[in-house]
């Protein structure tokens, strides 16, 4: 079904340091064959975690959401026009097929700690898949006896994933630490710290609940699930506490985010072919004027942390295809806008800002590292403390959790300052706090910054969440955009071949599914990527 995986390919994906391209869920492999190897779950877990990291497979979404924009796309590319025939451009539209193997392997080796982690990763990846596709095979997925799996309703999958997370807490809680195979080493995220796993699980639960929060008919369910989280007692990911991992990145084997998006890696490890032209992948992480100008308009100190100054200054009097306000060190592109380089030669990559962070080669992370790209050995994140605090702020603002809404909002934005290390020394987070406080006070009348000035507190919260996720969590920004009725107002692609007057709200199903599972696919009705809603959209 969808994209076939050979058994050997799955094994290589599980144990190799390089990643394999994911396809749709393949129901035609037998996980029992894989457990006949000498593999144990501790050998599989590190790569399972790395393959679950956020941000690196959503370049198109980062551009759609107004964060990034490569300026030299040939007109007519599918991601510019929204003419999407399949899900190949949607990096998180399919769970990792090795999840089935990992969970089965943990069970067969009597490793409840690993079984619990498998359920967490299942909830993480399947929820992302639903956020892309809505209905999809779930209960029948991975069953080799079922050649044409039924589709399950997106809401049903979400609710079952919440149950999977409940089970994960029990399994991890009851697991004997000393019987969990090499857990302190294999668990490259929390090193076997149960309390951190519980906080991550609770935060992931909160994410799934807030996704559906704009549907009024879900309030009773959400409140009941929140009560369970509170009763569990571990809380959520706290300030400075990301769900991230670092198996020991080096200059030659750097962090994946650094390798994909930094212009200062020692090698160009990733490239892509666009209209028969090969470009370095890091060039995709060029500033989009949408978010760039929002930062400028609000005098946001994070401007120079989300983006770096253009590597080559714009010559005085140089022709520009559109006006760029404010500090000319920070320039961007309009997504999809065709540029005639003969007339406007200064929209090439070297003349626009890139993702913010280190600007020298062979730079390791240190307390003075700032921005997003902090060094070749930077951590890979699955979920950040920024998201955790914004999720909590939303639940508090809605009256579903206790706390002061204004304080929760300010703490969430302040966490963005800390994460970017705006203060310049991560060992002294109060420096970043002071940078936030000064800005917040100076913008006392700005309804896009100051709580007291905003008439719509929820929109303020969502706007600043959008700003905080720049280059860090674009997929969640797309989720919020869809559930909040296309807020904030993000310009659509400027490509003249654009086929829609709205941004797509979902991924299309893979074309091969129409051949291999036609009856069950057609039972989902006519799918339109512009109008067929994900179940949690109001």
Automatic annotation (TrEMBL):
Lipoprotein as UniProt keyword: yes
KW Zinc-finger (keyword) present: no
Domain of life the protein comes from: Bacteria
Keywords assigned by UniProt, alphabetized: Lipoprotein
Name listed for the protein in its UniProt record: SusD/RagB family nutrient-binding outer membrane lipoprotein
